Amino acid sequence: MQLRKPDAVENVAVLGAGTIGASWAAHFLAHGIGVRVWDPAEGFEAKVREFIARAWPSLKRLGAPAQPDEAKISFFADPAEAVSACDFVQESGPENKEIKIALYERLDDALPEGVVLASSSSGLLISELQAGRVGAERYVIGHPFNPPHLIPLVEVVGGRVSDPAAVDWALAFYNGCGKKAVRINREVPGHLANRLQVALWREVVHLVDTGVASVEDVDTAIAFGPGLRWSLMGPNLILHLAGGEGGMRHFLDHLGPSIEAWWADLGTPALDEAVGRKLIEGTEAAAKGRSIAQLAEERDRLLVGLLEMLARERGAGG
Ligand SMILES: NC(=O)c1ccc[n+]([C@@H]2O[C@H](COP(=O)([O-])OP(=O)(O)OC[C@H]3O[C@@H](n4cnc5c(N)ncnc54)[C@H](O)[C@@H]3O)[C@@H](O)[C@H]2O)c1
Asked: What total number of domains does the chain contain?
């Protein structure tokens, strides 16, 4: 497969422009890349414009130009038209296998040669989405974290018939436009980071359900403890440091047996109605009257501050 250069992308087609697609559009625009947006919903253009306007102050703090370049955003009534003159496609339609397959069918005759398509899917297997497509080898997963215009991580994984070069291409493209892309070697439901999140959350649910701690205290324990360290290095390097001069080797000798005993004691809760009620009531209490919009504003404001600090401290290329 002949691919275009990942650092020469001028236009990205953004297919599906809800929570994730609109945020991707803001991200690409902030990095000087043109966006060609399509969504089947009535009035999507106004919603995307509004999202970008709301996101821009944060993006500006992170280095975007003063205003989005109006000439670089266009809206289409047909996905085939949106992809017809693009260098990359970021698909963010609903998390539904049939809907994604039906959309990809509409692109068969329109996707220019050598253009990679990445799906934002949170957990579907690209093998199941790409089967039978024209140019199926250029379909990959490019899974972002919400909101993609602020959270750097993108997880990239290919399916059964993806060309490894398309996976490499997507990694290079994302890393070249302000994202931190990681390669997943083999597709698994939920990809990588969502599996890690839900592994931790399974134990959160168990601890709350069995009354070990309140929802609020669990959140405090993570946000003021390991969560702070994880945003700097990740769990393995952090535990390497927990082993002192002996690093991970000493950590395993010293604490490995205890950890195996704790593993054996971890819970496997069900998300039934009674558990759901405890989680909802506990989370509403932890929100202390703050609305979803207020919490989102607080998250984004603190996140931008953290990203600014990390960029400053790590320097270029960090
Ligand atoms: N929300 C998250 O936290 C999150 C995070 C990472 C990835 N994702 C993934 O991103 C994708 C989009 O999720 P979202 O949260 O933005 O959903 P959303 O419901 O906010 O947006 C989906 C958009 O798709 C449009 N749409 C409806 N029918 C469509 C069709 N037939 N073809 C294309 N688009 C259609 C809708 O009008 C809507 O604008 C999903 O695959 C999801 O798994 C979501």
From this structure: 2
Task: Look up residue 168 and give its two tokens.
Answer: 């490499």
- Looking at ligand 1, which atom is closest to the CA of residue 21? 16
DSSP string, 238-296: HHHHHTGGGHHHHHHHHHHHHHHHHHHH-------HHHHHHHHHHHHHHHTT--HHHHH
Residue having the nearest C-alpha atom to atom 23 of ligand 1: 18
* Residue 304 in domain: no
Domain span at residue 276? 193-287
Write the residue with the smallest CA distance to atom 11 of ligand 1.
92
9 C-beta closer than 6 A to ligand 1: no
Do 210 and 266 lie in a common domain?
A: yes
Q: Is the pTM of this model over 0.90?
A: yes
- Whole-angstrom Cα distance, residue 142 to residue 273? 34
Give pLDDT tens digits for 133-146: 999 999 999 999 99
